[in-house]
Amino acid sequence: MKRILFFGSLLILTASVAMTTSAALFNWRNATYDFGRIAQGKPVTAEFAFTNKGESPLIISNAKGSCGCTGVDYPKSAILPGQSGVVKATFNAAAIGAFNKTVMVESNAEGGTQTLYFKGEVMKEGAAAQ
């Protein structure tokens, strides 16, 4: 009986501590980016700014583009509550035509993996209006 009371109390204590601990939380300034028309052969970079609105440090463990045509740079150190950071996605504008790409951001933030989006249209050199 003492064991049951002990483990029951331990379970309740663990649950109450877990409920009061607030996770890290992304607050994206923008989660989508439209390049519009861009010139072929000239890489472009989208910047996705965010603030950690949670109460725990935000740690990005990985961020990757949906294809090999996108390089991603992200903060490697923890973003403390209230601090900001930027995820950068550089698109290699090699192929002519419209594109829709994503960046998957894996972290300890509430809500799990976050998806960022960018799009545009690659035009022949001289035809793009920036």
TrEMBL record:
<dbReference type="InterPro" id="IPR011467">
    <property type="entry name" value="DUF1573"/>
</dbReference>
<dbReference type="Pfam" id="PF07610">
    <property type="entry name" value="DUF1573"/>
</dbReference>
<feature type="signal peptide">
    <location>
        <begin position="1"/>
        <end position="23"/>
    </location>
</feature>
<protein>
    <submittedName>
        <fullName>DUF1573 domain-containing protein</fullName>
    </submittedName>
</protein>
<keyword id="KW-0732">Signal</keyword>
<dbReference type="InterPro" id="IPR013783">
    <property type="entry name" value="Ig-like_fold"/>
</dbReference>
